[in-house]
Protein backbone atom coordinates (compact mmCIF):
# COMPACT_ATOMS: atom_id res chain seq x y z
CA UNK A 1 0.00 0.00 0.00
CA UNK A 2 1.43 3.38 -1.00
CA UNK A 3 -1.05 5.98 0.25
CA UNK A 4 -1.51 6.85 3.90
CA UNK A 5 -4.38 5.24 5.77
CA UNK A 6 -5.87 7.41 8.54
CA UNK A 7 -8.91 6.24 10.47
CA UNK A 8 -11.13 8.02 13.00
CA UNK A 9 -12.50 6.26 16.07
CA UNK A 10 -14.55 7.15 19.10
CA UNK A 11 -18.00 7.17 20.61
CA UNK A 12 -21.13 8.54 18.98
CA UNK A 13 -21.03 12.33 18.72
CA UNK A 14 -17.28 12.60 19.35
CA UNK A 15 -16.99 14.94 16.36
CA UNK A 16 -15.44 12.55 13.87
CA UNK A 17 -17.29 13.94 10.86
CA UNK A 18 -16.33 17.52 11.69
CA UNK A 19 -12.66 16.63 12.15
CA UNK A 20 -12.66 14.60 8.93
CA UNK A 21 -14.06 17.60 7.08
CA UNK A 22 -11.33 19.84 8.55
CA UNK A 23 -8.61 17.39 7.60
CA UNK A 24 -9.98 16.87 4.11
CA UNK A 25 -10.00 20.66 3.58
CA UNK A 26 -6.40 20.84 4.82
CA UNK A 27 -5.32 18.13 2.37
CA UNK A 28 -7.20 19.79 -0.49
CA UNK A 29 -5.46 23.12 0.22
CA UNK A 30 -2.11 21.38 -0.04
CA UNK A 31 -3.05 19.47 -3.16
CA UNK A 32 -2.76 16.10 -1.44
CA UNK A 33 -4.95 13.55 -3.26
CA UNK A 34 -7.28 11.78 -0.86
CA UNK A 35 -10.66 10.17 -0.38
CA UNK A 36 -13.09 10.37 2.51
CA UNK A 37 -15.02 7.22 3.31
CA UNK A 38 -16.82 5.50 6.17
CA UNK A 39 -17.66 2.21 7.84
CA UNK A 40 -19.96 0.46 7.76
CA UNK A 41 -20.41 1.57 4.15
CA UNK A 42 -18.15 3.32 1.70
CA UNK A 43 -19.15 1.21 -1.31
CA UNK A 44 -22.50 0.20 -2.85
CA UNK A 45 -22.62 -3.27 -1.33
CA UNK A 46 -21.28 -2.12 2.05
CA UNK A 47 -23.83 0.71 2.21
CA UNK A 48 -26.56 -1.90 1.62
CA UNK A 49 -25.13 -4.03 4.46
CA UNK A 50 -25.05 -0.88 6.64
CA UNK A 51 -28.81 -0.45 6.24
CA UNK A 52 -29.38 -3.98 7.53
CA UNK A 53 -26.98 -3.58 10.48
CA UNK A 54 -28.38 -0.29 11.72
CA UNK A 55 -32.09 -0.95 11.01
CA UNK A 56 -33.93 -0.21 14.27
CA UNK A 57 -36.52 -2.95 13.51
CA UNK A 58 -33.95 -5.74 13.76
CA UNK A 59 -33.86 -5.97 17.53
CA UNK A 60 -33.48 -9.78 17.31
CA UNK A 61 -30.09 -9.61 15.56
CA UNK A 62 -27.54 -11.74 17.40
CA UNK A 63 -24.22 -10.24 18.44
CA UNK A 64 -22.41 -12.73 16.22
CA UNK A 65 -24.53 -11.79 13.19
CA UNK A 66 -23.83 -8.11 13.88
CA UNK A 67 -20.06 -8.69 14.11
CA UNK A 68 -20.04 -10.77 10.93
CA UNK A 69 -22.00 -8.13 9.02
CA UNK A 70 -19.53 -5.42 10.07
CA UNK A 71 -16.67 -7.67 8.95
CA UNK A 72 -18.44 -8.42 5.65
CA UNK A 73 -19.05 -4.72 5.00
CA UNK A 74 -15.37 -4.08 5.82
CA UNK A 75 -14.05 -6.73 3.43
CA UNK A 76 -16.11 -5.31 0.55
CA UNK A 77 -15.23 -1.72 1.42
CA UNK A 78 -11.53 -2.60 1.38
CA UNK A 79 -11.78 -4.30 -1.98
CA UNK A 80 -13.95 -1.65 -3.64
CA UNK A 81 -12.70 1.59 -2.14
CA UNK A 82 -9.77 1.54 0.29
CA UNK A 83 -7.29 -0.76 -1.45
CA UNK A 84 -7.62 0.89 -4.88
CA UNK A 85 -7.18 4.38 -3.39
CA UNK A 86 -4.09 3.37 -1.39
CA UNK A 87 -2.63 1.62 -4.42
CA UNK A 88 -3.12 4.84 -6.40
CA UNK A 89 -1.11 6.70 -3.74
CA UNK A 90 -4.09 8.51 -2.25
CA UNK A 91 -4.49 9.26 1.44
CA UNK A 92 -7.58 7.51 2.80
CA UNK A 93 -9.59 9.16 5.60
CA UNK A 94 -11.98 6.60 7.01
CA UNK A 95 -14.71 7.19 9.57
CA UNK A 96 -14.36 4.07 11.81
CA UNK A 97 -12.51 0.85 11.09
CA UNK A 98 -11.28 -2.27 12.88
CA UNK A 99 -11.05 -0.70 16.35
CA UNK A 100 -14.79 0.04 16.20
CA UNK A 101 -15.39 -3.71 16.02
CA UNK A 102 -13.04 -4.34 18.95
CA UNK A 103 -14.69 -1.57 20.99
CA UNK A 104 -18.38 -2.07 20.11
CA UNK A 105 -18.65 -5.81 19.41
CA UNK A 106 -15.81 -6.72 21.78
CA UNK A 107 -16.16 -4.50 24.84
CA UNK A 108 -19.75 -3.38 24.14
CA UNK A 109 -21.36 -6.71 23.23
CA UNK A 110 -18.86 -8.92 25.02
CA UNK A 111 -17.63 -10.98 22.04
CA UNK A 112 -14.13 -12.47 22.26
CA UNK A 113 -11.21 -10.66 20.68
CA UNK A 114 -10.03 -13.89 19.06
CA UNK A 115 -13.32 -14.31 17.20
CA UNK A 116 -13.23 -10.67 16.07
CA UNK A 117 -9.64 -10.98 14.92
CA UNK A 118 -10.48 -14.12 12.97
CA UNK A 119 -13.46 -12.69 11.12
CA UNK A 120 -11.56 -9.47 10.40
CA UNK A 121 -8.28 -11.14 9.54
CA UNK A 122 -8.42 -10.13 5.89
CA UNK A 123 -8.65 -6.48 6.91
CA UNK A 124 -6.19 -6.60 9.78
CA UNK A 125 -3.53 -8.65 8.02
CA UNK A 126 -3.17 -6.44 4.99
CA UNK A 127 -4.49 -3.06 5.91
CA UNK A 128 -3.77 -1.82 9.38
CA UNK A 129 -4.12 1.97 9.44
CA UNK A 130 -1.01 4.14 9.70
CA UNK A 131 -2.82 5.83 12.52
CA UNK A 132 -6.25 5.49 14.14
CA UNK A 133 -7.27 8.73 15.86
CA UNK A 134 -9.36 8.03 18.95
CA UNK A 135 -11.38 11.18 19.53
CA UNK A 136 -11.74 11.00 23.27
CA UNK A 137 -14.95 12.38 24.69
CA UNK A 138 -16.99 10.41 27.24
CA UNK A 139 -20.32 9.16 25.79
CA UNK A 140 -22.56 11.09 28.19
CA UNK A 141 -21.01 14.36 26.99
CA UNK A 142 -21.09 13.27 23.40
CA UNK A 143 -24.81 12.44 23.42
CA UNK A 144 -25.43 15.77 25.13
CA UNK A 145 -23.63 17.48 22.25
CA UNK A 146 -25.70 15.70 19.63
CA UNK A 147 -28.94 16.11 21.64
CA UNK A 148 -29.56 12.44 22.48
CA UNK A 149 -29.48 9.12 20.67
CA UNK A 150 -31.06 8.55 17.26
CA UNK A 151 -34.27 6.52 17.76
CA UNK A 152 -34.01 4.83 14.36
CA UNK A 153 -30.44 3.59 14.91
CA UNK A 154 -30.09 0.13 16.53
CA UNK A 155 -26.59 0.77 17.91
CA UNK A 156 -27.32 4.26 19.26
CA UNK A 157 -30.31 2.76 21.08
CA UNK A 158 -28.14 0.17 22.87
CA UNK A 159 -28.18 2.11 26.15
CA UNK A 160 -25.88 4.13 28.40
CA UNK A 161 -24.11 1.10 29.94
CA UNK A 162 -23.28 -0.25 26.50
CA UNK A 163 -21.77 3.08 25.41
CA UNK A 164 -19.83 3.38 28.66
CA UNK A 165 -18.29 -0.09 28.03
CA UNK A 166 -17.42 0.94 24.47
CA UNK A 167 -15.71 4.08 25.74
CA UNK A 168 -13.75 2.21 28.38
CA UNK A 169 -12.88 -0.34 25.71
CA UNK A 170 -11.35 2.39 23.56
CA UNK A 171 -9.25 3.56 26.51
CA UNK A 172 -7.89 0.03 26.97
CA UNK A 173 -7.32 -0.46 23.26
CA UNK A 174 -5.32 2.77 23.14
CA UNK A 175 -3.00 1.26 25.77
CA UNK A 176 -2.83 -2.02 23.92
CA UNK A 177 -2.04 -0.49 20.52
CA UNK A 178 -0.04 2.65 21.42
CA UNK A 179 1.69 2.82 18.04
CA UNK A 180 -1.56 2.91 16.07
CA UNK A 181 -4.51 3.96 18.21
CA UNK A 182 -3.71 7.46 19.40
CA UNK A 183 -5.90 9.26 21.92
CA UNK A 184 -6.87 12.83 21.05
CA UNK A 185 -8.29 14.81 23.95
CA UNK A 186 -11.44 16.48 22.62
CA UNK A 187 -12.45 18.43 25.71
CA UNK A 188 -11.50 21.73 24.05
CA UNK A 189 -13.12 23.45 21.07
CA UNK A 190 -13.34 21.75 17.68
CA UNK A 191 -10.64 24.12 16.43
CA UNK A 192 -8.28 23.10 19.23
CA UNK A 193 -8.91 19.45 18.36
CA UNK A 194 -8.28 20.22 14.70
CA UNK A 195 -4.87 21.72 15.56
CA UNK A 196 -3.97 18.77 17.78
CA UNK A 197 -4.77 16.35 14.98
CA UNK A 198 -2.79 18.30 12.38
CA UNK A 199 0.20 18.47 14.72
CA UNK A 200 0.04 14.77 15.49
CA UNK A 201 -0.22 13.77 11.83
CA UNK A 202 2.62 16.09 10.84
CA UNK A 203 4.84 14.66 13.58
CA UNK A 204 4.22 11.20 12.13
CA UNK A 205 4.94 12.35 8.60
CA UNK A 206 1.44 11.47 7.45
CA UNK A 207 0.47 14.85 6.02
CA UNK A 208 2.48 17.60 4.35
P1 LIG B 1 -22.79 5.95 12.27
O1 LIG B 1 -24.10 6.57 12.06
O2 LIG B 1 -21.77 6.06 11.19
O3 LIG B 1 -22.25 6.42 13.68
P2 LIG B 1 -21.16 7.48 14.00
O4 LIG B 1 -21.62 8.75 13.37
O5 LIG B 1 -21.07 7.54 15.47
O6 LIG B 1 -19.88 6.93 13.38
O7 LIG B 1 -23.06 4.42 12.58
C1 LIG B 1 -22.10 3.53 12.75
C2 LIG B 1 -22.44 2.71 13.97
O8 LIG B 1 -21.87 1.43 13.84
C3 LIG B 1 -21.88 3.32 15.25
O9 LIG B 1 -22.86 3.19 16.26
C4 LIG B 1 -20.72 2.40 15.59
C5 LIG B 1 -21.11 1.11 14.98
N1 LIG B 1 -19.99 0.24 14.56
C6 LIG B 1 -19.76 -0.97 15.23
O10 LIG B 1 -20.47 -1.28 16.20
N2 LIG B 1 -18.77 -1.79 14.80
C7 LIG B 1 -17.99 -1.49 13.72
O11 LIG B 1 -17.08 -2.28 13.35
C8 LIG B 1 -18.23 -0.25 13.02
C9 LIG B 1 -17.40 0.13 11.83
C10 LIG B 1 -19.24 0.58 13.48
Task: Kindly list the characteristics that best describe this protein.
208 residues; alpha/beta; single chain; binds thymidine-5'-diphosphate; five-stranded parallel sheet
Structure description:
The chain has a 5-stranded parallel β-sheet with strand order 2-3-1-4-5, with helices on both faces. The model has no long low-confidence stretch (mean pLDDT 94). The chain is built from 9 helices and 5 strands. It is of the alpha/beta class. The longest helix is centred in the middle third of the chain and has 25 residues, at 63-87. Helix 4 (98-108) crosses helix 8 (160-176). The site of thymidine-5'-diphosphate has 14 residues, from helix 4.
Task: Describe the SSE topology.
Blueprint: E1 5-10, H1 16-29, E2 34-38, H2 44-54, H3 63-87, E3 91-95, H4 98-108, H5 113-119, H6 121-126, E4 131-136, H7 139-145, H8 160-176, E5 181-185, H9 190-203
Parallel strand pairs: 1-3, 1-4, 2-3, 4-5
Helix pairs in contact: 1-9, 2-3, 4-8
This protein binds thymidine-5'-diphosphate.
Thymidine-5'-diphosphate binds near residues 16, 38, 100, 101 and 104.
Amino acid sequence: MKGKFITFEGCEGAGKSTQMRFLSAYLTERGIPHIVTREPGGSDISEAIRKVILDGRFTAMTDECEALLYAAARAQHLADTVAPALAAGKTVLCDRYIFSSYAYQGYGRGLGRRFLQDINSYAVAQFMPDVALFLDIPPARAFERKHGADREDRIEQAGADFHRRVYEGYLRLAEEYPEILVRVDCSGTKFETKDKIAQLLRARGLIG
